[in-house]
Amino acid sequence: AGCEKEPSSYMWIYILLGNMLRGIGETPITPLGISYLDDFAKEENVPVYVACLHTIAMMGPMFGFLLGSLCAKLYVDIGFVDPGSITITPQDSRWVGAWWLGFLIGGATNFLSAIPFCFLPKSLKKPEEAKKDKTSHGLLENTGASRNKLSPGKTKPRKWSVMLKGKLLGNRMYLTFLCCSLLQFSGFIGFLTYKPKYMEQQYGQSTSKSNFLIGMTSLPPVGLGIFLGGLIMKKYKMGIIGATKFSFTMSFLAYAISLLHFFVGCDNYMVAGLTVSYE
């Protein structure tokens, strides 16, 4: 009974709120950033710019794993206890790394990197092709506005269900791409989440070394592949169908190669009463 202790720390609330604010801040970057590039860049350069954007985004998790590897080597109470009084090492199962240090470094880096966005212009000059189409777009807008003025009574607010079914779910290309993206991200997130722990358990590696290996061997090739994909799309000027076939081929090859993971592993640990008898 003397060992029982009620949890009294509410630090998890601050971590929850911090991650919520971070998610709110990160939300506009990808959809609005890609739309911004698509509107103000030449059509043949958009794949390269988007590839650069995603490649730089992949560098974040890579440096995050390296930072996590460094923080895992530091004791959790670093700065509050004498390092000479610590008698255990990172290889000890009781070791707890300075997990909180990564949040401070990452938060400060995010804050500093957001400052240059405040100095960006509100709008950029569009390419010549967009200027040529400006007259036709204006004509269409004026035509639509005049129709609305002539028949204001017929204009009715469209229901969300009708818009969802007609615009989104009715688009087979969009729906297929959405399902493909869900499968890819689900597999990739599971890979990053559980592979470090798998390396610790199966290969006897420390948390620090596992994070270092994942950060160096898994994420840089993905970023390089995204960049090369953008260059290939620009060189061969792929349309929607060509890009779809290219994406399907590369994804199929990636899944086929990833099946080799099934042939990698070690024997299970000998656990008394579970894998072996007590005798």
UniProtKB/TrEMBL annotation:
GO terms for biological process: monoatomic ion transport; sodium-independent organic anion transport. It is found in: Cell membrane; Membrane. It is a multi-pass membrane protein. GO terms for cellular component: basolateral plasma membrane. Keywords: Disulfide bond, Ion transport, Membrane, Transmembrane, Transmembrane helix, Transport. Residues 130-157 are annotated as: Disordered. The chain crosses the membrane at residues 12-34, 46-76, 96-120, 173-192, 212-233, 245-264. InterPro entries: MFS_trans_sf, OATP. It holds the Pfam family OATP. Belongs to the organo anion transporter (TC 2.A.60) family. This is Solute carrier organic anion transporter family member. It comes from Notiomystis cincta. The gene is Slco1c1_2.
